[in-house]
Amino acid sequence: MDVKLFDSELKVMDVLWREGDQPARRIADALEKEVGWNVNTTYTLIKRCMKKGAIRRTDPGFQCHALIPKEAVQAAETDELVGKLFDGSVDKLFASLLGRKRLTAEQIRQLRDIVGELE
User: Fold this and answer.
1) What is the Cβ-side half-sphere exposure of residue 39, based on CA atoms within 13 angstroms?
2) Among 1, 13, 27, 31, fewest CB within 10 Å belongs to which?
3) pLDDT score for 116
4) pLDDT per position as a tens digit, 58-85
C-alpha cells in the first residue's frame, strides 16, 4: 500500500470500514459523537483522504466510499512497526507482545493454531 494515513484520517476510514458507504454528514455525526470533532474538521479529513486516493466521493449527497481495505492498512502499518521498532524481526515483535501479559490457556491454543497454519 502506497498511501500513508495519519491517525485522524484512520478515524474517518474506520467509520467507512465499520458502516460501509456513508454520506459525509453521517461520518461527521459519528465522529462528533466518538471523538468530539466538528463538521469542518471531519470534512477536511475526508478531503485529505480523497486526495490520497483512500476515499472516493460520489454525488448526490457527498457519498463516501473506502477505496482501501482495512486489511491493507493493517498490513502496511504492521510492516512499518516491525521495521521501525523491531529491526524487521517478527519474532522480536511477538516476544515483546507476549512478554507483556499473561495469556489464558485458550489464547495460547489459538496462537498455536495460527502458527500451525503457517507451517
Assistant:
1) 5
2) 1
3) 87
4) 988 899 999 999 999 999 999 999 999 9
DSSP string of 10-66, one letter each residue: HHHHHHHHHH-SEEHHHHHHHHHHHH---HHHHHHHHHHHHHTTSEEEETTTTEEEE
The dihedral of CA 99, 102, 105, 109: what is its sign?
Answer: negative
Q: Residue 15: how many CB atoms within 10 A of its CB?
A: 21
CA 53 to chain centre: 15
Neighbouring-strand partners of residue 22: 64
Average pLDDT over all residues of the chain: 92
Q: What is the DSSP string of 57-111?
A: EETTTTEEEE-S-HHHHHHHHHHHHHHHHSTT-HHHHHHHHHTSSPPPHHHHHHH
Rounded to whole angstroms, the Cα distance separating 115 from 35 reads: 37
